[in-house]
Amino acid sequence: MVFCCFTVDLAKWLETKSNQIDSLDFSQLLLSGRKIAELIRAFNEMLEFHSLESKVQVREWVTETIGILTQMLRTGNINEDILVNIQIVGDFGYAWGSLIDMYTTQMQILIQKHPSAVSKLRAVFMKLSSAMDMPLLRLNQARSPDLVTVSSYYSGELVAFVEKVLQIIPEKIFSLLHSIIDIQTNSIKEIPTRLDKDKMKEYAQLEERHKVNIMYKYGWENNEYELFTNNNK
């Protein structure tokens, strides 16, 4: 009975805190910052209760909430000076041209080995767009009629660079398709309509089918597959 009452009280307390979080108004950063600090302190005190040791899921949720609230508090404390410093430090305009071209091959190799790295390269492409900021800013301040022309030029150069880096993706896809078709055509035997039981192992060709499956799933070619299997024997 006591445990049941504790559970009900805990649910009500968490619901109250949830409503307080929903009521945060970030147009009033100072007031919201104080409320967030109070919420973090309240959740930390709650985690000290010995009765919560058996409620692993609740502790995980509360710990995750504390982490998010702490991040919100830090974000709310960002002022204009910090934003300016981030913009200055994050300016990637100096890399435009021959410097970034030096890494095109390395980026393509990275995409070949780890296809998921494409999402990480998005930040690089976004940063390169900062190369346009300074010349366009000066042209805009001078009310130059060349603003649209210069903007189109830099945009075209950026698009051309992105296409140059990412062209490895269709090349990789068609290379994989060629390897898969080669295995399915020349290595994997066609299963007859009627098959004797003693020949099932012969036609199963588990090694070849596993190789095709790995290539479908991970995008590895024959030599990469062999390297992987040799390292795990």
Short characterization:
The chain is mainly alpha-helical and 233 residues long.
Molecular structure report:
The protein has about 230 residues and is an all-alpha fold. The chain has helices spanning about 1-20, 30-45, 55-75, 80-90, 100, 105-115, 120-130, 135-140, 145-165, 170-185, 200-205, 205-220, 220-230. It folds into 3 domains: about 1-75; about 85-165, no CATH class; about 170-230, no CATH class. Helix 2 runs antiparallel to helix 3 and helix 10 runs antiparallel to helix 12. The protein is flat and about 75 Å long. The chain starts with a helix and ends with a helix. Residues about 220-233 have low confidence and may be disordered.
Summarize this structure as a short list of keywords or feature phrases:
233 residues; 3 domains; 0% strand; disordered C terminus
How many separate domains make up the residues? 3
CA-based gyration radius? 29 Å
Number of helices: 13
Terminal Cα span: 58 Å
Q: Order of helices and strands, N to C?
A: HHHHHHHHHHHHH
Q: What is the share of helical residues?
A: over 70%
Number of strands: 0
**Global shape:** flat
- Residue ranges: pLDDT <50 for 5 or more in a row? 221-233
Strand content of the residues, in percent?
A: under 5%
**Structural class of the helices, strands and pairings?**
mainly alpha
- Summarize model confidence as the mean pLDDT: 77
Main sheet record: none
